[in-house]
Specification:
Elements lengths: L4 E9 L5 H17 L3 E8 L2 E10 L2 E10 L4 E10 L1 H11 L2 H4 L1 H8 L1
Antiparallel strand pairs: 1-5, 2-3, 3-4, 4-5
Helix pairs in contact: 2-4
């Protein structure tokens, strides 16, 4: 299941001191990813909550994934490098507790 995976980085911040700085970081990072050709997969902005998921693709192959979640107090950032199968990623994300966000990728990839 992990064949082709180069690395996973996960950062969880349970208490954020400067919400404005984190909001700005998420917006700046999202803009940078889009300028570099990453595809926006999930974009949610509801109240003070933000969810951003971006995928780097080559043809039908997903070669990287970035997840940013911020609710005004807590933040989660995840980067997956390497070739991955969206269905397998959904199962891994479920085990990590972020499956509701990433698990939808498997269905989105099939629908395209």
């Amino acid at each position: 299941m992990l064949q082709g995976l180069e690395g996973v980085r996960l950062r969880v911040y349970e208490s954020v001191d400067d919400a404005d700085a984190v909001n700005a970081f998420v917006d700046d990072a999202a803009g940078r990813l889009e300028r570099e050709g990453w595809q926006r997969v999930v974009y949610v902005q509801e109240g003070g909550e933000k969810v951003r998921v971006y995928a780097r693709t080559e043809g039908q192959q997903v070669n990287g994934l970035t997840l940013m979640v911020f609710d005004g107090m807590e933040a989660v950032f995840m980067n997956v490098a390497g070739r991955l199968d969206p269905e397998q990623l959904g199962r891994i994300a479920g085990a990590m507790g972020v499956g509701d966000v990433i698990g939808s990728l498997a269905g989105a990839e099939r629908d395209q």
